[in-house]
Amino acid sequence: MQKIETPLPGCFLLEPLVHGDDRGFFIESWNRRTYRELGIDFDYVQDNHSRSTQGVLRGIHYQIDNPQGKLVRVTSGSVFDVAVDLRRGSPTFSRWFGVELSEANKRIFWVPPGFGHGFYVTSETADFQYKCTEYFTPENDRGIRWNDPSIGIEWPLVDGGDPSLSGKDSAAPLLEDAEVFE
Is 19 a catalytic residue? Predict the structure, then answer.
């Protein structure tokens, strides 16, 4: 497995070794020893799977008192995946990094605790799977508006149209009004 650093310290991409032939492929998506050697040494307590249609944007989500690290990947379709540094004392506070995750590139993205996370579906549909280091707790659930100008995420919106958002994501506050990590 190859580790690829990003401009956000602590966030990185992983490219698994793909064993393929005319019958299909095999990848090892999780191996505690391999991940520990790469600097991801967490116990995962929750494994999630979502399916979304093209134009759906989920995020920017995080948990304030129970921060989750997320190991994310796409097993069908493609998304533009984003992490935002929400650690107020960090030199990269409010900066973002985005990357395409797809069934074709098989990349895995590590989003550590202290970061907001979101994705936008660029294919007809996408299956998005992720492991979490902490349980989801509704009382700690927070969000930042997807199009906050102070963050300036460059979403690759299909045909330049507005994304499909949940009510919660539509009402998310701007970063300046949000509770973040100290």
Answer: no
Asked if residue 101 belongs to a domain, the reply is: yes
Model-wide pTM > 0.85: yes
Q: Which one-letter amino acid corresponds to residue 63?
A: Q
The per-residue pLDDT for range 141-169, each reduced to its tens digit, is 999 999 999 999 999 999 888 999 999 99
Q: Could you tell me if residue 11 is inside a domain?
A: no
Catalytic residue among 44, 61, 117, 120: 61
For 26, the enclosing helix (H) or strand (E) is strand 24-27
Q: What is the CATH number of the domain that holds 52?
A: 2.60.120.10
Backbone angle region of 106, left / alpha / beta, with phi > 0 → left and psi within -120 to 50 → alpha: left
Please report which residue ranges of 11-93 form alpha helices under DSSP H: 32-37
Q: Is 130 a catalytic residue?
A: yes
How many angstroms separate the CA atoms of 97 and 154, rounded? 10
Given 44, 62, 120, 130, the catalytic residue = 130
